[in-house]
Amino acid sequence: MSTTLKFTALLLALSLCRGLRHDYIDNYIDNYIDEVTEEEAELVAQPSKYGSLWPLPQKVQLSEVSFKLTSSSFRIVDAKDSTAGPSCSLLQDAYRRYYEYMFGIAKRQQLNKGRRTGPSELTELQVWITSPDSECDSYPSLTSDESYELSVNQPYAVLKAPKVWGALHGLETFSQLVYEDEYGAKSINSTTISDFPRFAHRGILLDSSRHFLPIKVILANLETMAMNKINVFHWHIVDDQSFPYLSRTFPQLSQQGAYHPYTHVYTPADVKMVIEFARLRGIRVIPEFDTPGHTQSWGKGQPDLLTPCYSGSKPSGTFGPVNPILNTTYDFMSQFFKEISAVFPDAYVHLGGDEVDFTCWKSNPDIQKFMDQQGFGQDYSKLESFYIQKLLDIVTTTEKGYTIWQEVFDNGVKLKPDTLIHVWKGNQQQYQNEMANVTSSGYRTLLSTPWYLNRISYGQDWQGHYKADPQDFKGTEAQKKLVIGGEACLWGEYVDATNLTPRLWPRASAVAERLWSAKDVTDINDAFSRLSVHRCRMVDRGIPAEPLFSSYCPHEYKGI
Amino acid sequence: MVRSGRYTRLNVYLLILSVLQLNLHTVEGVWPLPQAFTSSTERYPLNPQAFYFGYGRQSAAQQGCSVLDSAFRRYFSLIFPDYTDGRLHFSQYKPFTVEVSIDHDDCEGYPNEDSSERYNLSVSAGQASLKAETVWGALRGLETFSQLVYQNDFAYYRTLLMLNFPRFQFRGILLDTSRHYLPVQAILKTLDAMAYSKFNVFHWHIVDDPSFPYQSSSFPDLSSKGAFHPMTHIYTQSDVRRVISHARLWGIRVLPEFDSPGHTTSWGKGQPGLLTPCYNGGTPSGTFGPVNPALPSTYQFMARLFKEVSSVFPDSYIHLGGDEVDFSCWKSNPDVRAFMQKMGFGSDFTKLEAFYMENIVNITSALNKTSIVWQDVFDYHERIPKDTVLHIWKGIPAKYQEELSRITKAGMRVLLAAPWYINHISYGQDWRNYYTVQPQNFSGTEEQKKLVIGGEVCMWGEYVDATNLSPRLWPRASAAAERLWSDEKQTSNVDKAFPRLQDFRCKLLRRGIQAEPLYVGHCKHEYQGV
């Protein structure tokens, strides 16, 4: 590693000033705040030697030699030997996108061929896909190669990646190396980077059931995920409150179950658009259709799917979880998941399985009878297992892998060995035990507990998110390898298009670095400095990412 | 609450109204809840092509009244959000006129602490009559009227009689433009939303430790050296004028705060010699503390600065801060200690602070401004002018009642902010806490209660800038707005308020205000930005 980069005034401006008045609160709040702010106060915002790179690449070599970039000369081009050529629209789109990030849309102009370029000017970034199959027209997957190597030097910079997925990440990294000198000219320092993710699954969950999220908001956040090298959009698309997914097979589900059958639904064309937009940014879309609980909205368009609850000996008129004792339930699920597996190309589907409330099942005499017949006694988790196993068998026939929330594992449901267990419950101790249990049973796992970003609090809570490490639990090396990554969850009770983006960013960026960068990247001061500039970069790209602390961005958010 | 005088006839009117059942569902769209009203259940359609605002024949204000003329234009668009010229034909509808009558022509003035905001609205078939003492009252009435028009595919209205007036004269929102710079556009948008909730004071915490964005004409170095950026992160004189004039058209006062002697780090950059040099042993440490109270030059500077500020900001009140003064730097400085000796303050630095604040208050009094100071000042002072307002910010969660009791007992007027620090976010429906505050529920006489002039919602800026200001402020601040405007007895049930506030939040969205959801649910027109 070499010396400090010359960065813009922006870095110097990250002075920390504490307004004491605002930390003054009595009693319990006081203690809580102190806990948070004392830590924060230690942060010293000195420019990082890594500039504004976020998430930090695995290996970085920076030098002080700098080159100029000008919008009139600079181009991103396919390398001569690249296996992805002009026909790879994924890359061509990305070239344009990153050119615009770096130079702004307005400044696009014709290549000035007659203009002589100076000796210290960098005029080209060559993108070289090295593997015979660039995967340009494929979908990213859990096993996609996302690695890349970037060398910024004269006469041109070279970005080498086996697949397009690595190239996308490399373009983002390249754009993060570009900075403005004190006269506003774009510069980049001679740099060598070799990079790959620590975890293969780096996700964000958005909940479009508690509040409907307009497509525009989803797309903007996919865009931002790409800036943070997040590669999974976990679409918690339906839940108790509403069913906005417009099913071709069962159109009544959204017709009756959405907040509004026309203005608050995702049509097949919308879903397709989201999937393609995500693919172009190397992001997988994993839909979640959570059952047997969390299904109130399903019942409106699919009569008899839910269990009628009883009050004494009479149906009370309310409904509980999916009715697990009817054949019609499984016929419905077969058809439904057949559609889902065709609509969503990813190899995984999330089946939920969390928080099943047994009281309604208990109240229903038909269910009680069924329990007796099956010999389940009074153990309703056996009934849940019964349901889930039948569902898993159904989904298996669609040749999809599946992810389920941890309860399904906790309740002892028989699972296929390649099932992904999504850990979301408990405090630190409890989720670490759970990770140990899941992996010692040989299952692969995914962590979300420390990253429920919907749970807001006053202060710099990103630091807590940053410090959580999914491999921090007691277990063997083999067990640790079963951790495929994690997801930041933004549940929708209090979130809609009005506040989603600033609530998610840059807090989710903290999770992004934890999941991408090397395990030993834990310097919170260095992170604060890089993240502060990274957030201003997101703002500059039109994303209303909220501030970390008192300070400013050279270009404040204008989309008011 | 109804004062005697020219509104005696309204007293009777109010009595009649108060015996009628509150028919909540028919005015559920109005936030904050009006004081007294009755309405019919029939509804009549409104036709944008035959809808008129006009001045009553007896009205002191007539066409040409800048405040009302521009309000008519704004409210037309708010009442008919889907209206596009000439393409719709509602010939079957009858014309409708809103006739506004004002007692005093204060069209070109500014709202102030005594401005009456009461109004009397009567809506009957084909016309509405809005009567108010001042244009500011008329603005509140127009806001109410706009909320009464139902926006269910087509606009329609119900007949109604209403008498409305605020419970407190001071209903403010503090924005902090020092910890983060807020673009002027963000401030203007906030002023719009404030008017929708009938807030009437914008407390502009314009400078503080981190930055000094106010571009002073007397001391341009303050912002050229003390702002985050001397060109892009400042408020020019014309920016400030724009904010003030926009606020005026909405009936909102702009109360500037220039906080000293603490919270002034950014001032020191452009005004050498203003701050106290801190000492480390016998030598200056290179760091600076609060404003140096021992130098005559300090008071000369302050006199010039406040003279400018007083002429730039028309409001008769000015906020002088005075909070959280850290004495350690003063203590370290030998010159300050010598001054203490000379003044006979001993080692009581609160006396030094009192000395400083007295001088500042005297400066602003001489400029005919009434001072508002943070409550800290009260603790050190026996001798602040009786008309000074103490701003209560300490004592969360429940001890601010003691502060109110203690300070009003001394006969001082108070402004309550402590329970409304809405920069302190938490998970869930914290608006309920803001709603259930009882500003006058403290031990004290009726006279003491009357010294509570109102309250203020504070949005401190550590974690807030243009990216997240609006959804953090709205609709949480609206909860406090109802507490400050409406009758407490009629609005004591937070669960009853919930659906009304949800409805109001959707109304804010419809008006382009990025107001966040209270809980799960949806609005017919969701926010379409990012």
TrEMBL record, chain A:
<keyword id="KW-0326">Glycosidase</keyword>
<protein>
    <recommendedName>
        <fullName>Beta-hexosaminidase</fullName>
        <ecNumber>3.2.1.52</ecNumber>
    </recommendedName>
</protein>
<dbReference type="InterPro" id="IPR029019">
    <property type="entry name" value="HEX_eukaryotic_N"/>
</dbReference>
<dbReference type="GO" id="GO:0016020">
    <property type="term" value="C:membrane"/>
</dbReference>
<dbReference type="GO" id="GO:0005764">
    <property type="term" value="C:lysosome"/>
</dbReference>
<dbReference type="InterPro" id="IPR029018">
    <property type="entry name" value="Hex-like_dom2"/>
</dbReference>
<dbReference type="GO" id="GO:0001525">
    <property type="term" value="P:angiogenesis"/>
</dbReference>
<keyword id="KW-0458">Lysosome</keyword>
<feature type="domain" description="Glycoside hydrolase family 20 catalytic">
    <location>
        <begin position="199"/>
        <end position="518"/>
    </location>
</feature>
<feature type="disulfide bond">
    <location>
        <begin position="309"/>
        <end position="360"/>
    </location>
</feature>
<comment type="subunit">
    <text>There are 3 forms of beta-hexosaminidase: hexosaminidase A is a heterodimer composed of one subunit alpha and one subunit beta (chain A and B); hexosaminidase B is a homodimer of two beta subunits (two chains A and B); hexosaminidase S is a homodimer of two alpha subunits. The composition of the dimer (isozyme A versus isozyme S) has a significant effect on the substrate specificity of the alpha subunit active site.</text>
</comment>
<dbReference type="GO" id="GO:0060473">
    <property type="term" value="C:cortical granule"/>
</dbReference>
<dbReference type="InterPro" id="IPR025705">
    <property type="entry name" value="Beta_hexosaminidase_sua/sub"/>
</dbReference>
<dbReference type="GO" id="GO:0004563">
    <property type="term" value="F:beta-N-acetylhexosaminidase activity"/>
</dbReference>
<keyword id="KW-0443">Lipid metabolism</keyword>
<feature type="signal peptide">
    <location>
        <begin position="1"/>
        <end position="19"/>
    </location>
</feature>
<keyword id="KW-1015">Disulfide bond</keyword>
<keyword id="KW-0732">Signal</keyword>
<comment type="function">
    <text>Hydrolyzes the non-reducing end N-acetyl-D-hexosamine and/or sulfated N-acetyl-D-hexosamine of glycoconjugates, such as the oligosaccharide moieties from proteins and neutral glycolipids, or from certain mucopolysaccharides. The isozyme B does not hydrolyze each of these substrates, however hydrolyzes efficiently neutral oligosaccharide. Only the isozyme A is responsible for the degradation of GM2 gangliosides in the presence of GM2A. During fertilization is responsible, at least in part, for the zona block to polyspermy.</text>
</comment>
<dbReference type="Pfam" id="PF00728">
    <property type="entry name" value="Glyco_hydro_20"/>
</dbReference>
<comment type="similarity">
    <text>Belongs to the glycosyl hydrolase 20 family.</text>
</comment>
<dbReference type="GO" id="GO:0006689">
    <property type="term" value="P:ganglioside catabolic process"/>
</dbReference>
Automatic annotation (TrEMBL), chain B:
<dbReference type="InterPro" id="IPR029018">
    <property type="entry name" value="Hex-like_dom2"/>
</dbReference>
<feature type="domain" description="Glycoside hydrolase family 20 catalytic">
    <location>
        <begin position="168"/>
        <end position="487"/>
    </location>
</feature>
<keyword id="KW-1015">Disulfide bond</keyword>
<dbReference type="GO" id="GO:0005764">
    <property type="term" value="C:lysosome"/>
</dbReference>
<comment type="similarity">
    <text>Belongs to the glycosyl hydrolase 20 family.</text>
</comment>
<feature type="domain" description="Beta-hexosaminidase eukaryotic type N-terminal">
    <location>
        <begin position="30"/>
        <end position="148"/>
    </location>
</feature>
<dbReference type="Pfam" id="PF00728">
    <property type="entry name" value="Glyco_hydro_20"/>
</dbReference>
<keyword id="KW-0326">Glycosidase</keyword>
<keyword id="KW-0325">Glycoprotein</keyword>
<dbReference type="GO" id="GO:0005975">
    <property type="term" value="P:carbohydrate metabolic process"/>
</dbReference>
<dbReference type="Pfam" id="PF14845">
    <property type="entry name" value="Glycohydro_20b2"/>
</dbReference>
<dbReference type="GO" id="GO:0030203">
    <property type="term" value="P:glycosaminoglycan metabolic process"/>
</dbReference>
<dbReference type="GO" id="GO:0006689">
    <property type="term" value="P:ganglioside catabolic process"/>
</dbReference>
<feature type="disulfide bond">
    <location>
        <begin position="278"/>
        <end position="329"/>
    </location>
</feature>
<feature type="signal peptide">
    <location>
        <begin position="1"/>
        <end position="29"/>
    </location>
</feature>
<comment type="subunit">
    <text>There are 3 beta-hexosaminidase isozymes: isozyme A (hexosaminidase A) is a heterodimer composed of one subunit alpha and one subunit beta (chain A and B); isozyme B (hexosaminidase B) is a homodimer of two beta subunits (two chains A and B); isozyme S (hexosaminidase S) is a homodimer of two alpha subunits. The composition of the dimer (isozyme A versus isozyme S) has a significant effect on the substrate specificity of the alpha subunit active site.</text>
</comment>
<dbReference type="GO" id="GO:0004563">
    <property type="term" value="F:beta-N-acetylhexosaminidase activity"/>
</dbReference>
<dbReference type="InterPro" id="IPR025705">
    <property type="entry name" value="Beta_hexosaminidase_sua/sub"/>
</dbReference>
<keyword id="KW-0732">Signal</keyword>
<keyword id="KW-0443">Lipid metabolism</keyword>
<keyword id="KW-0378">Hydrolase</keyword>
<keyword id="KW-0865">Zymogen</keyword>
